[in-house]
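This part of the workshop introduces the protein records we will be handling. The structure tokens are whole numbers drawn from a learned vocabulary of backbone shapes. The record below serves as our worked example for the rest of this section.

===
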Amino acid sequence: MIDELYKEVILDHYKSPRNKRGIEAATCSSHGNNPLCGDEVTVYANVEDGQVTDAAFEGQGCSISQASASMMTDAVGGRSLDEVHSLTKEFRAMMAGESEPSEDELGDLAALRGVVRYPARIKCAVLAWDTLEQALEGGEARGAAAH
């Protein structure tokens, strides 16, 4: 029953992705791909005063990669960079099978917890997260250099 609910959440984010758009004047962005399965994602973020004010993505790939990107952009908008880095660590720990965060902690992202049972699909789920981290590292560096 719970697995069915999670599948519905993943399919909902895949069929009706949130924040699937470019951000023309993004303060940071990065492109990531998984050549083994063809998943591609470009993540955009606006960071102001240490806070992600907007996050979006463009790309194509399997339902897991696209749903994860949709959920991620929903989850990180409005959070501080520290909170985003913490959430990324929490998500990666869940994908590694090292923790089982509650739905209260992760919201829709908890629906991806079942991916752990399919090791080949874990890379699909973390692609957008790795790409966001790359964007923020580059964005933070550019932001720091600009001051």
Notes: The chain is about 50% helix and 20% strand.
